[in-house]
Design goal:
By secondary structure, the protein is of the alpha/beta class. Helix content is 39%, strand content 16%. It binds adenosine-5'-diphosphate and magnesium ion (MG).
Length: 419
């Protein structure tokens, strides 16, 4: 395997970019994807969270744009924050000033994007909703696109985004290179991906249904009404930045406010906040201005905030894959991290689905994916309490309340999945 980047025949200027980024050796997914993608091959790639998939598609994409001055490229991501992060990474990689990129995401004023589009950017990075808006207004043309990237591919092709992606791809030439990357890839998505890929190379580094090995998983079985006090104990016990996932938008704000009232440093993020606020919250977290971010699944995918040390699943995610993505916000680029899940009896079905994903073919699993872990000194599962019970009803009521409030708060993201 290549020990450093010099074996790929990258342009010297691009080698300098990598040196500035302190990328000395390629990660395994980069080592495999870069040479194939530089040849123009289609790729369906999986590698665990935090292992450098952005540069695995970003480096060859920039090389191809440098080699083919007429060519354009488009990168699609499921969230605005991820699009903006991918742009920042690609801008670090791009070594020439005349290779312009544009960020096309919702919630930002149109005039600026329209102005930037007039300057003929060759790299388009954005979210499907806004890109379709531009296609409809004819302010964006994709007929010169030679490389199409779907980051977080399985999310991009699932029910929430599938139709939008289909509409976008109709505008992209058939003869193109298509690069698809994710940490997870359910079978039905592999089939759907085939529709857009031409003789793809399948690259799989590690398992697409296991969290990164550097993540220490823990769980606490509890009742809905006890979650908050467990959370407080855990916040006291842990040092370093913490990302807490809750199910509803309204729930993120309520929890962050409650924590602030007792002098924790917390902010909330979800899809109904104004874009400027979303940016401020993420930037503040990146800059370590506060310690606890309470988020919906809008923060589950792709975000690379290296100093996050702990993930807490206050509520479990809807889809089992999102468990792997959520906890993958820690332990980035070789670091270590921990992930704690609070599980109520009403969530036992979700927990079992997560276990089935991570242990396919195994009989009923009891502990976290890497085997049983200490559970505050108690045995791992209170088996009999896992079904129904009054806590289950409390829980359902709580969810319904949150979802109703979320609905009342408008449907800004109706066109796609709403977090
Ligand atoms: P993924 O998309 O696989 O979750 P990212 O592309 O977000 O991972 O990268 C995770 C982190 O690893 C980022 O902080 C990035 O800067 C860093 N990284 C990526 N490739 C390298 C490399 N070759 N050497 C050192 N750090 C790297
Ligand atoms: Mg990524």
């Amino acid at each position: 395997m290549t020990q450093d980047f010099s074996g790929f025949g990258l342009p010297p200027k691009l080698m300098q970019s990598l040196a500035r980024m302190k990328f000395t050796a390629p990660t395994p997914i980069q080592a495999q994807a870069i040479p194939l993608a530089m040849e123009g091959k289609d790729i369906l790639g999986t590698a665990q969270t935090g292992t450098g998939k952005t540069a695995a598609f970003g480096i060859p994409l920039v090389v191809r744009l440098m080699e083919h001055p007429e060519m354009k490229a488009i990168i699609l991501t499921p969230t605005r924050e991820l699009a903006s992060q991918v742009l920042a990474t690609l801008q670090q990689i791009i070594p020439v000033p005349d290779l312009r990129a544009v960020l096309l995401i919702g919630g930002e004023p149109m005039p600026r994007q329209l102005r930037q589009l007039q300057q003929n950017p060759r790299l388009i990075i954005g979210t499907p909703g806004r890109i379709n808006d531009h296609l409809e207004r004819r302010s964006l043309r994709l007929d010169r696109v030679g490389v199409l990237v779907l980051d977080e591919t399985d999310r991009m092709l699932d029910m929430g985004f599938g139709h939008q992606i289909e509409r976008i791809i109709k505008h992209v030439p058939q003869t193109r290179q298509t690069l698809m990357f994710s940490a997870t890839l359910p079978q039905e998505i592999v089939r759907m991906a085939g529709k857009y890929l031409n003789n793809p190379q399948r690259i799989a580094v590690g398992s697409a249904h296991k969290p990164h090995a550097n993540i220490r998983e823990e769980l606490i079985h509890t009742a809905e009404g006890e979650k908050y006090s467990h959370l407080l104990v855990q916040l006291e016990k842990r040092s370093g930045a913490i990302l807490v996932f809750v199910k509803t938008k309204w729930g993120t704000e309520r929890l962050a406010q409650k924590l602030c009232r007792i002098h924790h440093d917390a902010e909330a993020i979800h899809g109904d906040l104004q874009q400027r606020k979303r940016e401020r919250v993420i930037q503040g977290f990146r800059d370590k201005k506060y310690r606890i971010l309470v988020a919906t699944d809008v923060a589950a995918r792709g975000l690379d905030i290296p100093h996050i040390q702990h993930i807490i699943n206050y509520d479990l995610p809807q889809s089992p894959e999102d468990y792997i993505h959520r906890i993958g916000r820690t332990a980035r680029a070789g670091a270590e991290g921990s992930a704690l899940s609070l599980i109520t009896p009403a969530e036992s079905n979700k927990w079992r689905a997560i276990q089935r994903l991570m242990n396919p073919g195994a009989p009923q699993e009891r502990g976290p994916s890497n085997g049983p872990r200490p559970n505050n000194g108690r045995p791992n599962y209170a088996k009999k309490r896992r079904f129904g019970g009054s806590h289950g009803r409390d829980r359902d009521q709580h969810n319904r309340d949150g979802q109703r409030r979320d609905q009342q708060r408008g449907n800004e993201q109706q066109k796609s999945r709403s977090f």
